[in-house]
Write a structure and sequence with these properties.
It is built from three helices and five strands. It is an alpha+beta fold. The two termini are about 15 Å apart.
């Protein structure tokens, strides 16, 4: 059994499990970094820019893992808050977002992550792991953003 089959077998046991993560508070510094990435300047008018995509654009919260713990593609081994994909090359396969309310700086954010599906598909170039990850970002007043993402995984040697 190859690595991709091992990851798929492990993923199937994790389907449906909810991982609850306290992300802490999002502050003006976080939004300033987002403004720099999106608008090219920390001086961008943060109040005037849409912060709706901020939450779903961050895969790993906090300081992040040491460089030695990153996968060859630059991802953390556990970008899904509870499901390890170490050894696979990941590619984004699409994202659907539902926006419920605006993000307010200084409010504590919690994230619920669910591995909704894990499928292994045979393609002409070899096996392809298709992961569906559902994320729900909330604050004390309720849901802010719901994000349904698809990730595609291949073995690094393919």
């Amino acid at each position: 059994m190859g690595l991709i089959e091992q990851v798929w077998t492990s993923a199937r046991t994790a389907v449906g499990a909810i991982n609850h993560v306290d992300l802490g508070t999002v502050d003006d510094r976080d939004l300033g970094r987002y403004a720099t990435a999106v608008a090219g300047s920390v001086d961008a008018d943060i109040a005037g820019m849409s912060t709706e995509l901020f939450l779903s654009s961050v895969l790993v919260w906090g300081d992040g893992p040491p460089e030695d713990d990153l996968l060859p593609d630059g991802n953390a081994a556990d970008p899904f808050a509870g499901f390890d994909v170490a050894g696979l090359r990941l590619m984004a396969g699409g994202q659907e977002l539902d926006f419920h309310r605006d993000l307010v700086p200084g409010v504590r954010i919690v994230l619920d992550v669910v591995l909704a599906a894990a499928d292994l598909t045979q393609t002409r170039s070899g096996p392809l792991l298709v992961l569906r990850v559902d994320r729900r970002y909330s604050d004390e007043h309720g849901v802010l953003v719901e994000c349904r993402e698809t990730f595609l995984g291949r073995e690094a040697s393919v």
